[in-house]
Amino acid sequence: MLDRGQGNEPIYYGVDQLQRTNETQLRDVEERHDEMRHLESDIVQLHEIHRDFAELVTGHGQMIDNIESSVAKTETNVFHGAKTLGKAVELQSAARRKRIICGVIVFIIIIIAIIITVVVVVTKKS
Questions:
Q1: Contact 1, 13 (CB under 8 A)
Q2: Rounded CA gap, 17 and 14, in Å?
Q3: Whole-Å CA distances, 15 to 21, 23, 90
Q4: For the residues of 3-24, what is the DSSP string, one character each?
Q5: Global model pTM greater than 0.70
Q6: Which residues contact residue 10 at a Cβ distance below 8 angstroms, ignoring those fewer than 6 apart?
Q7: Widest CA span in the chain
Q8: Is the pLDDT of residue 2 over 50?
Q9: Distance between alpha carbon 120 and the CA centroid of its chain, in Å?
Q10: Taking the CB of the first residue and of the last residue of the chain, which one, N or C, has fewer CB atoms within 10 A?
Q11: What is the pLDDT of residue 13?
Q12: Which pLDDT tens digit goes with each residue over 14-66?
């Protein structure tokens, strides 16, 4: 399509329009390419974040396992400590009873000794 304008110059509308269409398509392709690069970069960052998060979860999982193990050991130790403390209370109570009994026996022996002494002294005087 060749047309003559005012200055008798040929104007190629079809070629000019085709060139503009090609330039527009090229810009669109370049924009999509840039968007794809940006998307790829975002995906790589997301992958790195996911990997870091997985490492943190693994590390914290081990810490939680250690804490759980420590809690279980502490529970066992507290149970044994309570049992031992109960036994110690029983032994202390038994020891206190034995001391009281020994004190009463000594007191009775002293009383008997005093009575015997008084009886012997009274019988010697008479």
A1: yes
A2: 5
A3: 10, 12, 110
A4: EE-TTS-EE-HHHHHHHHHHHH
A5: no
A6: 2, 3, 4
A7: 177
A8: no
A9: 82
A10: C
A11: 61
A12: 677 778 888 888 899 999 999 999 999 999 999 999 999 888 888 888 888 89
Task: Determine how many CB atoms are found less than 10 A away from the CB of residue 78.
Answer: 10
Residue pLDDT, tens place only, 62-110: 888 899 999 999 999 999 999 999 999 999 999 999 999 999 999 999 9
- Specify the residue for token string 């790589």: 44
Cα–Cα distance for residue pair 20/64, rounded to 1 Å? 65
Count of residues in the chain: 126
Tokens of 105: 């026996």
**The one-letter amino acid at 51:** R
Lookup result for tokens 């995906």: 43
Residue 108's SS3 state is: helix
Nearest to 88 by CA among 10, 126, 96, 124: 96
Q: State the Cα–Cα distance between residues 124 and 126, nearest whole angstrom.
A: 5
